């Protein structure tokens, strides 16, 4: 995530920019997908990985750590054998749902029409 650190440093130069602040909090490339998936409820790592199969294991780990560090995701460890770890959204993470809905509206209106047609064909 060295690229992320570099981007965050560049962002700090634009002090006061709310977009930069959002990017620093969310940070990771796959953060939006992880947050959207966790809106469905708490999930274990392997469950998340299956549901977001486009994200590689290390990237998912890094994204979850970053979101946890920034207070959007809660990591709960259960003392089982083997240890069970479950991820869920905090209140701060759940509150991001409104922003995700607005992004969804925007992409429905302005997204790639070819991709939208392909997606519609898959759901029929």
UniProtKB/TrEMBL annotation:
Keywords: DNA-binding, Transcription, Transcription regulation. InterPro entries: HTH_HxlR (IPR002577), WH-like_DNA-bd_sf (IPR036388), WH_DNA-bd_sf (IPR036390). Transmembrane segments: none annotated. The keyword Transcription regulation applies. Residues 11-115 form the HTH hxlR-type domain. The keyword Iron-sulfur does not apply. One of its GO terms (molecular function) is DNA binding. Pfam families: HxlR. This is HxlR family transcriptional regulator. It comes from Paenibacillus prosopidis.
């Amino acid at each position: 995530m060295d690229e992320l650190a570099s981007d965050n440093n560049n962002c700090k130069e634009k002090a006061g920019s709310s977009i930069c602040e959002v990017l620093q909090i969310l940070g990771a490339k796959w953060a939006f997908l992880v947050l959207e998936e966790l809106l469905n409820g708490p999930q274990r790592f392997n469950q998340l990985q299956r549901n977001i199969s486009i994200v590689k294991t290390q990237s998912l780990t890094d994204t979850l750590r970053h979101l946890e560090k920034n207070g959007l995701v809660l990591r709960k460890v259960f003392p089982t054998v083997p240890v069970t770890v479950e991820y869920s959204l905090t209140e701060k993470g759940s509150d991001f749902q409104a922003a995700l809905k607005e992004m969804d509206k925007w992409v429905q209106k302005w997204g790639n029409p070819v991709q939208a047609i392909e997606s519609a064909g898959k759901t029929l």
